[in-house]
Automatic annotation (TrEMBL):
Keywords: Signal. It comes from the Bacteria. This is Right handed beta helix region. The keyword Signal applies. It comes from Streptacidiphilus jiangxiensis. Residues 1-22 form the signal peptide.
Length: 260
């Protein structure tokens, strides 16, 4: 169901206008300085550390390397759902009420999958949305208490800062990623969540996630070297409306995911 909502969502003209004005100039050498992207675009270049304020986009075709950490501050949006190349050599932190979109493939209107990389971890706590497609994360992905609430229609719960998605209900997506450590999604309150086609070095845990869309909490076609555990989710973890491709684990399928 959620994919039909997403396909029907119109592109927000105001969002595109907000992304169009000049942003951070290109960095040609890395110095021990913190780059503040306060709206606009983050141009190609090597950066020591990046802090996102407002809505910042990594434009199509750009190549961005962050030598240490990348922070998306509270209430801000990083739009890297583009054909850009992004490499964060440290951790990527997502703040309260913030939105992270990283990576692009056919699920998000790119004809060729991108290959963005995070050498450390991706962490979020009480963010609005974390949307990850075709990324390589050498550490762990941990999302705790994400989402704006149990709604697919409340205007206050819409994601408006990612141009390729238009205006869409908030959701978390972990799709087509390669993760060296584990993925944990816990305490979500949002429209939808999908965990699909990931290759994970250790365990996948989905617990206490609640979505307004009855097709939410889709868990399919993942490969994990450890366990896959799903507990106390509503709706219960399911294949949903996508292909019913079982998850493959070297450990044990537990809880709601025992049959998946």
């Amino acid at each position: 169901m959620f994919r039909s909502i997403l396909r029907a969502a119109p592109v927000a003209v105001a969002t595109i206008s907000a992304l169009a004005f000049a942003g951070v100039p290109a960095a040609h050498a890395t110095h021990r300085t913190v780059t503040q992207c306060s709206g606009g675009t983050l141009a190609s270049g090597d950066y020591y550390e990046v802090v996102v304020h407002g809505t910042c986009q990594v434009p199509d075709g750009a190549s961005v390397t962050v030598e240490t950490q990348l922070y998306v501050t509270a209430g801000s949006t990083l739009d890297a759902v583009t054909t850009a190349s992004v490499h964060v050599k440290g951790n990527l932190q997502v703040g309260r009420g913030a939105v992270l979109g990283l990576g692009c493939n056919t699920e998000t209107k790119c004809t060729t999958p991108t290959m963005d990389e995070v050498d450390g971890n991706i962490n979020s706590d009480h963010s609005t949305a974390v949307i990850l497609h075709s990324d390589t994360v050498k550490g762990d992905i941990t999302t705790l208490n994400d989402g704006p609430g149990l709604s697919c229609t409340d205007p206050s719960s819409l994601v408006k800062g990612i141009a390729r998605l238009g205006t869409t209900p908030a959701y978390d997506a972990f799709e087509d990623n390669t993760v060296g450590g584990y993925i944990t999604s816990s305490g979500l309150r949002s429209c939808w969540m999908g965990m699909e086609r990931n290759h994970v070095g250790t365990n996948i845990l989905i617990s206490d996630d609640r979505t307004a869309d009855p097709d939410g909490n889709e868990v399919a076609a993942n490969r994990a070297n450890g366990d896959l555990g799903c507990y106390n989710n509503s709706p219960a973890a399911q294949f949903g409306d996508g292909p019913h491709i079982p998850n493959a684990v070297n450990g044990t399928k537990l809880g709601e995911c025992a049959a998946l």
